């Protein structure tokens, strides 16, 4: 890792110099603690020479940590006010940072890279879950990305890594776990952010695993949508509207009196396989 980088001003100075008052509408909560940022940048593993997509670099705190780790960073930022501080970072790390002004919701990462890349982001909360589900929903598997390291509100992070039988377990857990490994990598206290959000945050790390054979994403989504759409109801009620749903439970020997949250990810995959 490059531990010494030329004359990087403290992030608080960067914010002051460029008048970057945090915009609530853009979900801006900035991280200034460089040690914390370095620890976040270390979660994906060695990044030396690796391509990284960062969504929402803001004034560039996480960006500089990724650059220090030796990554080749592409950053998508919507707020034009953040472009000058990011341009300064480009000068300090020549050829290592590409900044794209735009809405990450409208840019397919695959169009930005040849070959593998990692995604690392302190996500804007208003679009975080939508971006995340988009990255996990592609038909192509393994995807072009090698890992996702993403900051969420802790409650959302817990839903992503949730286990069956818990109230947090639902569609997000199944989406994140049926062909990936998902783990809670770090909790981040609200006081680490400026301004501090109302709730705690946590970082999840996702790495692709082997996709189970014979199951389509679309069918699995239909089943989990129906099952968790009425999560308090028994499966015999909630899966009524899914053609072949009740027969599939019988075929697989799954008790129709069970509720969605008691089914393991593998059981959902088995249902999806029969219906696919
Ligand atoms: C929570 S802040 C994180 C800032 C910085 N990475 C940090 O950790 O201090 C989220 C950032 O995402 C940007 N942003 C919000 N919506 C976006 C979108 N749709 N596409 C790209 N960037 C977006 C915001 O302007 C903001 O800079």
Task: Give a written overview of the molecule.
The chain has two domains: 5-208, Vaccinia Virus protein VP39 (Rossmann fold), CATH 3.40.50; 217-275, Helicase, Ruva Protein, domain 3. It is 35% helix and 19% strand. The chain has eleven helices and nine strands. It has helices at 11-17, 34-42, 61-68, 83-92, 125-136, 154-160, 171-177, 217-229, 235-238, 245-252, 265-275, and strands at residues 30-31, 51-55, 72-77, 97-101, 117-122, 145-153, 180-188, 193-194, 201-208. The strands form two sheets. Strands 4-3-2-5-6-9-7 form a seven-stranded mixed sheet, sandwiched between helices. Strand 3, helix 4 and strand 4 form a beta-alpha-beta unit. The model has no long low-confidence stretch (mean pLDDT 95). It binds S-adenosylmethionine (SAM).
